[in-house]
Every structure is written in structure tokens, then in C-alpha cells.
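Dear colleague,

Following up on Tuesday's group meeting, I ran the structure prediction for the two-component complex that the binding team flagged. I've pasted the input sequences exactly as they went in, so you can double-check that nothing got truncated or mislabelled along the way. The C-alpha cells for the whole assembly follow below. Feel free to forward this to whoever is handling the docking comparison.

Inputs:
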Amino acid sequence: MTARTIQVETLARVEGESSLYIKMAGERVADVKLKIYEPPRFFEALLRGRHYAEAPDITARICGICPIAYQMSAVHAIERALGVKPEPAIRLLRRLFYCGEWIESHALHIFMLHAPDFLGYADVIAMAADHRELVETALRLKKVGNCVISLLGGREIHPISAAVGGFYKAPTKAQLLALVPDLEWALQASVETVRWTKGLEFPSFEQDYEFVALRHPVEYPLNEGRLVSNRGMDIDATEYEDHFTELHVKHSNALQSVVRGRGSYLVGPLARFNLNFERLPKAAQDAAESAGLKPPVRNPFRSIVVRAVELVFACSEALRIIGEYEPPAVPRADIPNRAGVGQAITEAPRGILYHRYAFNERGLILTAKIVPPTSQNLRRIEDDLREYATQLVAWPQEEATWKCEQAVRNYDPCISCATHFLKVRIDRKNK
Amino acid sequence: MLILCCGNPERGDDAAGILVAEGLKELSIDTQVCTGEPATLLQQWDRAHDVLLIDAVVTGSPPGTIHVWNASETRLPPRPSQSTHGFGVALAIELARKLGSLPERLRVCGIEARNFGLGVKPSPAVQRAAKDLTNKIATECGCFPVV
């Protein structure tokens, strides 16, 4: 038996750091391990003894790309525990805040992390020489997202204005209206992005996924909704831990989440799109249809097109919200201390993010549980690679490795959220 | 001259650029403080001809060593991390070079850093270097240096 090993020292263009090991035995993939060996970050323990009002700012530090997701899941969970329902203007502002994060995060991933895979470049710098317009579009889109975040959150990275009960400071209508020209440009650029992604070449690979996403009665989900799946799940956030469990595997410092009794599942753009297509605004539906995209999309490589459709949604939704916005009477409701337990799920750019907090009558956190989207996708990524790598058995070493890295990037994993570095190693044994 | 100071005041020696910004502010010299996020950085130096960018760097030199690179003409040393968490000043400069939007003159002043601990103070060596660099920039701007 001859052994063959493919090894990539660093998997680039992912958020955070980890390594991937694939062992092939003849035509069979014998083992796949997404190894996450960055030390755990202990945020859940760090929160114990802190006042619940600190949770949005502490958890935002988990990620520099999606801090708003952490802030939103935290404020919603705590408000549910306290029985607080913010006024409609706050609800709108929170959706707008999230749109800003989706725009900057999706633009970063589509153009700067995933596009080089499809166009055959090692990184965005190499790509910039031949695709200047794409990179300029990416930077400008990202900037538009950052502007929304800075205005509502006080700064673009780890914003500081989101609070339990609302915002420390709410913007004026005029401040929001000033964003409109850039958002109108971004909407048009997003529609163009869908057209551009449509023309990319996608490997032929589909899986029978369990898609899991929030579903709201009328809106494309961001902050609210029941958790649903294409296998019949329809639950409230309070029931999350009855249906999902996190497993520790020896090769990973990040836990892997599974549906109890079923196994891996998929969260993120593909799940949201497939379960909520009719909730998309017309502009996004039209863009999807023009790209030949109809649910269910089961090819994870097409996630780049779906992300572009979600860019259209985020820009369109941001413009709608700005049009409707009237400043709240008070930016933040006063909330008394009391004991409680609360859970919430919101849709981070990469998928659902679950938070649960229990705190005492002084508002001090007793326990916290956080399940980030990448933890929820980790086992699914391994399952994809187990199937996809069988197509690559006869491929030259370098190309097979490239494709495996691309398959990981389909998920836009944020390994730092799940806890960080990616090296890929493929062992091949020919029987 | 546009002076851009990058850093994080909550991460030990990473505050080097912020310390320089604070020193220059005392001398009424305008600076812009930034995180180093590439899209923002490219916009900040858009249409500027002469840019001085100050940031903490790690090259293996003793802490507090001041490095100066003429980034308009030479690439900055590559950063080992390839994750997006490694996206920063060096990526912004190389992207701008490829896009033809690099300022005519771009100098990068790096203060060698070592300790990036959460919530810790910048080390004495970095504080001294920040003061030295502030004085050098003040002199270049025609201001009386801090004693």
C-alpha cells in the first residue's frame, strides 16, 4: 500500500486559525479532522459575576468581524429574561445595525476571501492586479457597512452603543438619511455582485443537508423568529438546548454542535435562503432568480451567490428602515435589576448564534452559554469534506488541497468565534 | 502631511500609535487615529500625497526600537498570520499599491512591541520610544519638542 500525504501549512482566508487533516485510503476518505487547537477563550466563565448590562460589550469582543451578532443575541436574551420589549424604533435600529454587519462581513468574504478561490489567486492582493474593480467594489461595500455600524455603534469594530433596553445614543433621522446615497450605490453594486457570482464555475457537489435558520412571520430573519429546519424542527429559543447538544472531540478546542439524535446541520446563508426565500424583498428575490437561484440550494460552493443575494437584502432592508425611521422617545429604557433566565437566537452573517444567561436579583450573571455559528457548522464542514474529498482522489495534490480549502471557506468559518489557525494535511494511501 | 496613528489602547504595547497621537495632540499637531482596518485606512489616505503612519510592529528587535519604512517604494515585511485577523496595515498598503492608490509618499514608523496583554499598560520601552518619535515628528512639523 502506498501512502500519499497532502499538507498545507496554513489555510489562509478564514477568520481565525486551525488545521485540517484528510486521510485518503485508495478511493475512500478514511478520516477528516478540522483541528482547532487554539486555546479556549473562556468567555462564558468570564461573564460570571459581571452585571448583565456588561454582557453586550464583553461578548462583542469574541469577534472583530461580527461583534454586533454577539451584542444582539446578548441584549435579546437578557431582555427576554427581564420581560422587556423595546419600542418599535429600537427594533428597527437593531435591524439596521445588523444590516451594517451583514454588508461588511459578506463583502469581505465574497470578494476578499472566497473570490480568489474561484478566480485562481492565492489571495486578494494577487487578485487585485487583474481584478481591480472587484477589489474596489469590495472595499467600498465594506466601508458602507462600516459607516452604518459606526453611526449606530459609535465605532466600526467592537461598537459600544448597543445596550440592554436600546442604545446609549440613538441617531437622528438626518444622520440616517446621510447614509442613503452610499446605500443606494451599495444596493446596485450588490445586484451586480449577484450577476458576477452567477458566472463563476461551481464544482458539482450537493448534499442532503438539515438546514437550520430563524424564521419570522413576515421578515427575512435577523433578530427574531422561531428556529426551524427542513426536517420539521420548529422551536422557540428556550427549547434550543433540548434539541441541540455540543460535543467535545479530541482534535478540537471548539465544541461541535449537533442536532440530538440526527447529527450535523448547516446554518448560515444557504439555510436562511432555503427556509426564508419568500421573506426576501423583491429586489433580492429578483436578483436570485436572475442568477437561476431557487431554493433549495444544496451546493455549498454556491453559497457565494447566496451571500451576494443577502447583500442585496441587507442594503434594501437598510434603505427601507431609514425611510421608516422616527427617533425613539428615549434611546434606552431604564431596567431594574431582577433575577431571571433568558435565551435568544439571532442570525450572525455565518448563521445562528445562541445565547443563554441566568442572573440573580442584583443582575449578576450566574451562568452564560454561547453557541457561535461556526461551532454549529464545524461537524458539517467535516462531513462535507468526507464526501467531497472522494471526488478528488485522482486529482493532483496541489489542486486537491486547494479545493478542500475552498470547501472549508464555503462556510466563511470564524474559528476565533468558535475558539483560532488552519493547516490542511491530506494523507493518501493507495490500496 | 497626514499623520495616521494606529493602535489599540487596551492591548499593552499595541497602544504605541495612540501614545504618539496623544503626544502630538498636546503640541496641537493634527493626527487621525485608526484601528488599521484596511477599507477605512484606504479611505483615510485617499487623495493625500504625504502620509506618515505610526503603528506597533513585531520584527524581533528589542521592544521600543523605532523602524521607518518608505512604503511608497518598498513592501513591508510580510505578516506570518494569513487569517483575516492578520488583515491590517500591511494588507492595506499592498492592496493600495496594486490598485494604484498609494499616496505619493508613505512612510511607516513602527515601534517594536512585545506585550499585547489585555488591559495592560504599554511597556516603559514603548512609552519612551513613543515620546522619542513624537519629538522627531514635532521637529519635522516645526514644533518645539517635548522635554
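Chain A touches chain B at residues 10-17, 64-65, 104, 108, 112-113, 123-125, 128-129, 132, 135-136, 139-140, 142-143, 146, 155-157, 415-416, 420-422 (CB under 8 Å).

Cheers,
M.
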